[in-house]
Structure formats: structure tokens, C-alpha cells
Design a protein that fits this description.
Number of helices: 8
Low-confidence stretches: none
Helix content: 40-55%
Largest sheet: 5 strands, parallel
Strand content: 15-25%
Shape: elongated
Radius of gyration: 19 Å
Oligomer: single chain
Distance between the termini: 26 Å
Order of helices and strands: EHEHEHEHEHEEEEHHHEE
Length: 231
Amino acid sequence: MRVLLAETNWNAMTAGAGLSEAGLLVTRVNDGTELLEFAKFGEQSAIVFDLDIPDMDGHKLLSDLRDRQPLMPIYVLSQNEDWAARRKAYELGADVVMAGDVNPAYLAAQIKAAVRRASGYASAQLKVGPMVLDTVLNHANINGTSLHLTRKEYEILELLVLNRERLVTREALMAHLYAWDDEPDARIINVYLSRIRQQIEASGGDANMLETVWGLGYRISAQARPQGMAA
């Protein structure tokens, strides 16, 4: 899961560090203008910013974000515990307003739960056929046998599982893994997918549950399909 975070004060910096420690990918921007620009083109799972943002009115920023991203989980931080300001944020579409000093572990747990629910999962254990992906431990297994994955391999698998039975494009995978950092050749996705399939097979699963639909993208399914078939 990737979070877009405006790192504009110490509270937001604390949140960013905690989210990274909880296993979330964090894209950091400097102000509200950058936040709006990155939100337009990114593959983030949630957005976090402090209401006291330096370059614009925080409530106006929230309203603009909600207009552009009607379903995106948005988490607002606020050192000001004034209820009127927090109520306005909720009215403008904030999912959660955290007043006072942020609790990063609590914030990370809330974000993970919201992303899972949006994808149709009720718990931290995401199941697709014989595969179970634990979004708390960032770990996957097939019938109890662990898959030994690198961080990026896990992130690819998690994104596919959150979009189970649906196509995910190569571009979406690249944006999720690297955001606006220097990207390697897009063919690196083939290397990661090959490694994930090897791990699925080594753990007793069917590698074809992770399917390539040529020219369209990739998907993971409970029932393996022959490679290259479109739905």
C-alpha cells in the first residue's frame, strides 16, 4: 500500500516515519500544491496531510482533494483540537481527523483497514485460493508454507491480491512501486513476477494463479487460468 503524505511539520514527519515502519510505502511532498499534483497522477492508496498546511487553506485543500478523489481514504492531522475545525473537515469529506500528536501505529492500522475494506476484505488476512497474505506482517503463504519475497515482490503481490480477479497494468505496478522516484526499466516487472511465480510453485501452489494477459496487464485469481487468456 502506498500513502501520499504532505510532510509539512513535525507531526506529519512523525506520521511518515511511523507509516514506513508499519510497512507502507510513503510518497512525501512539501506542500498542498504538490499534494494536489501528485494526487492527480499517483497510484496512492490513501492521502495524509496536516490541516495547518503552509501554502493554502487546509479545508480548501481537503475539498479539492475530495472533489477529485471521491473514494480515496483521506486522513487529516490537526494539532488544533478545536471541534469546529474538525467538524468542518468531516463535513468536507475527511475519513478521519486525528487531533493532537499523531499516533503513527494507530494511523497505519486505520489506513490498512480502510484499504482492505475498499477491496472487499474484512480482515488483515487476504485470501485468494490457497494463498493467504497478511497485511500486518507483510507476509504471504500458500497452505501455510511461506513465500520468501523481497519488499518489492511483496508489494506487487499485495496490489494484485487487493485487485483480485481484476487486471493491473504494468504502468500501475511501476507507479505503485516507484512513484516519482527514478524508475528502472519497466521490464523489471517481468523479473519480479517470475520470482513470485517461482515462490508460489516452491510453496506448493499453481504459478498460473498469477496470470499475464498479454498487452493488457496482470491479475491473480483463485482458479489458475492458462497464461495469456483474456477474460
